[in-house]
Amino acid sequence: MLKYQQIANEIEQYIREQNLKQGDKLPVLEQMMNQYAVSKSTITKALELLERKGIIFQLRGSGIFVRRHNRPGYMSLFSTQGFKSNLGNRILTSDVLDVSVMKPDVLVAENLGIDVTDDVYRVERVRYVDGEVLCHEESYYVKAIVPYLNREIVADSIFDYVQSALGVTIGFSDMYLQVGRLTESEAEYLGLHEDDPTLRIETIFHLTNGKPFDYSRITYHYAHSQFVIQANGPYM
Amino acid sequence: MLKYQQIANEIEQYIREQNLKQGDKLPVLEQMMNQYAVSKSTITKALELLERKGIIFQLRGSGIFVRRHNRPGYMSLFSTQGFKSNLGNRILTSDVLDVSVMKPDVLVAENLGIDVTDDVYRVERVRYVDGEVLCHEESYYVKAIVPYLNREIVADSIFDYVQSALGVTIGFSDMYLQVGRLTESEAEYLGLHEDDPTLRIETIFHLTNGKPFDYSRITYHYAHSQFVIQANGPYM
DNA sequence: AAGTATAATTGTACCGGTACAATTAAACAA
DNA sequence: TTGTTTAATTGTACCGGTACAATTATACTT
User: Fold this and answer.
1) What is the pLDDT of residue A89?
2) What is the model's pLDDT at position B162?
3) Helices A29-36 & A3-17 angle (0-180, nearest 10)
């Protein structure tokens, strides 16, 4: 692991262990340089990472402070979107409804930047947090990139498998949000009624080289899905 | 304006003018160093900024490439959330329903980190994109930070006013998303029916020094609100 | 052709430095 | 006490450098 990532983790752990709260001040940059025995720019990179994660904020001339959202019941939108990070102490489980190889339809192929004759894995799951229905997910993986999947892998975190076993790294993603009403079949999966409100998110996940490898459609249970997004900006 | 911001803008403009599309390659780092006559780290900072904005992605050993989402009809979630950036060529207007000074209730005071005896500005608006109803917004500004508002300021971009006229800078924000059903009065503002689905977003905006200065509740028209979020990560 | 080793290209990690602007604390004056 | 100037603190911008890993192109086999 890179130095600045390692340091970022240690600082995050420090905040957790010391139970620091919103506005609490961290050691100053120079002290961190000495403590971790690295140059200023390495500490700066570590802190910048934590800033992007919404853990801290830095104030020139003043110091480095803890930032915290912490509304109970709200999950980070990204934590449920493959980017594991921390779902806190909540337990995430899945019912696997389907894992199969197939040819994509035009829409799926388009979103994945492949041909309709290329193979994809289709995965369908219902996901739960602490036993409560969170969402219904239908996702497609480019088989040329993810050559093998089974129900066991899919029941756990697909992204962990893809990264560790296949050695590919996920780069970035585009998420498309929409609000609408449930269809009858969706309602059944979620234990709700037809026409109940829902949040739909389509996501295209790309590898670091820019190639899409996963296109997924998620339909959320409106009552069990409350999300937090921490934004830094405006960037200029 | 800082060098790296300026360069980021110029590169963004270059991409637009040259009409570069997804996957197109940009000049290599060293050429940019020469072209803008700055050091490597300054170019790197500019590119990192563009990466965070979802404009480009960088691939070690290969080059710098254009990233593009571009689903028609989808707005960046952050562009409607004060962070102006680009709403593309779509026109954003407002009906101002209320601008008044008042004492906050407990919930508002808590979210703003102030006392119920402190003054706040209450602003209520209905917002439109290209003439179509986008959302109903109710927001509260800490009067100690934003000492004056009127209907004219509020009809335009409040954030532009706050930053330029008051000289304070917005640092970061926490957004809380929820899906639910419209109340009768909300439905009326949005031209919808009671119990129609809706996306609700509460946002707390902080200054760079970490102090909250704006707490807002937005209720979106489900049919006219489709959002895109571009994520980079996992960060480690 | 088709695979394989080799070399060139290219961005990232990390160092260590100077200058500076924003904040805060200290000293001072009214 | 209260405001004002001054000094110390502290993070950020920017420079210019070395080393390196991932990618891509080239040359070399088979």
Assistant:
1) 78
2) 85
3) 110
Ranges assigned E (strand) in chain A: 56-59, 63-66, 75-76, 92-102, 120-129, 132-142, 170-181, 197-207, 212-221, 227-232
| DSSP strand pairing (B226-232 vs B75-76) | parallel
Report all structural domains of chain A as residue ranges with CATH numbers, in order of start.
3-66 (1.10.10.10), 75-228 (3.40.1410.10)
What sign does the CA torsion over B115, B116, B117, B119 have?
positive
Confidence of residue A85 (pLDDT cuts 50, 70, 90): very low
Of these ranges, A158-167, A215-224, B224-233, the one predicted with the greatest mean pLDDT is A215-224
Interface check B83 vs A, CB under 8 A: yes
Angstrom distance (rounded) from CA A169 to CA A148? 16
Element (H, E) at B201: strand B197-207
- Residue B214 one-letter amino acid: D
Nearest-CB residue to B197 (from A57, A81, A179): A179
Question: Is the per-residue pLDDT at B85 higher than 60?
Answer: no
Closest CA to A102 of A91, A114, A89, A90: A114
For residues A221 and A95, give the distance between their C-alpha atoms in angstroms, rounded to a whole number.
15
- How far, rounded to the nearest angstrom, does the alpha carbon of residue A153 sit from its chain's CA centroid? 18
Please judge whether B225 and A49 are an interchain contact, meaning their C-beta atoms are less than 8 angstroms apart.
no
The nt closest to A168 (CA vs C1′) is D22
Q: Which residues 50-69 of B are in CB contact (within 8 Å) with A? A: 52-54, 57, 59, 62, 65, 67, 69
Residues 168-207 of A with CB under 8 A from B: 170-181, 196-199, 206
Query: How many other CB atoms are there within 10 angstroms of residue B218's CB atom?
Result: 22
Q: What average pLDDT does this structure show over B99-128?
A: 96
